[in-house]
UniProtKB/TrEMBL annotation:
Record protein name field: Endoplasmic reticulum-Golgi intermediate compartment protein 1
Domain Endoplasmic reticulum vesicle transporter N-terminal: 5-97
PROSITE patterns on file: PROKAR_LIPOPROTEIN
A biological-process GO annotation: retrograde vesicle-mediated transport, Golgi to endoplasmic reticulum
Main location class: endoplasmic reticulum
A Pfam match: ERGIC_N
Topology relative to the membrane: Multi-pass membrane protein
Cellular compartment(s): Endoplasmic reticulum-Golgi intermediate compartment membrane
Domain Endoplasmic reticulum vesicle transporter C-terminal: 108-275
Transmembrane stretches, start-end: 26-48, 253-278, 298-317
InterPro entries: Erv, Erv_C, Erv_N
Amino acid sequence: MQFDIRRFDIYRKIPKDLTQPTNTGAAISLACISFISTLLLIELYYFITPEVVSELFVDIPESGNADRIPVHIDISVLNIGCEYVGIDIQDDLGRHEVGFIDNTLKTPENNGAGCRINASFKINRVPGNFHISTHSAASQPANGDMKHVIHELTFGDSIKGFRQIPNRKAFHPLRRFNNTNRPSHASHDYLLKIVPTIYEDLQSTRRYPYQFTFFYREYSPYQPHGGGMIPAIWFRYDIMPITVKYTEHRQKFYTFITSICAIVGGSFTVASIIDSLIFTASELFKKFELVFTQRDNVYFQFAGSKRFSLIINILILEQSKNKTHNKHKRSFIPYSQKETFFAV
């Protein structure tokens, strides 16, 4: 006996002549294909887009500048000229720089009445402050108005190019911060809490940006010996001992294939069940409709025949005889019953 491998075929084919297409089946098929296509596109998007996983730990990031943090500031002082304002840096290690000029660009604004300062420098990993003031000027301006606009203030590496990084605003919460509606001769104090952050992409490339929060307050500066006011814009910072790490992960390929198989198989199964239920219900309805139609046809055919008329006449005659017999039966009353009736 010759071995036939076709006996193991569990997907046996039905001749096309034995299948029956329906409008309902076509509508369900189109809806199923659209549904599957949408889910496949969504699944493909999530497979291509990396997932960012976050974790917290108590540590100091091992960057190239583990002991120092890069700072970039871009700020406009609206009512004091560039010849008066500068950057001063202080910290708890004893650092004190007045009029920091390295990597500092000053651009006059408002026809020389204001100044835009763009500077990059590094701070020690200890509590301290840096501030915009007129302390480094040879003479103090007549107008000590420190109204300002902060265009940018960031710590650490830039996050440009990392589109998947969560909560991007936490890395530059003071971007485009407008502080022009304050009193003219007030000092401005920003209290910053800096959180070290590590971002690792799919290629295991690390960057070390810093998130921070701020609290703002204003106060009138001290007037020594009744002299002129010396306002400033203070940025007081403190480094948090907790490090946040973001790591990009891509979905495994076998997980992607499993999801696709589940979507396609599940959708076709549910669609076939719905189609079977609708088809079965429609066939039952057609059968009941056919039965009632045939019964009505038989009734009307029988009603139009002579035999039906003869049967109706016989039934009417029998009914009239029964009525006459019952009438005579009620009119006859025995004598004993009459006496009983009158006696009562």
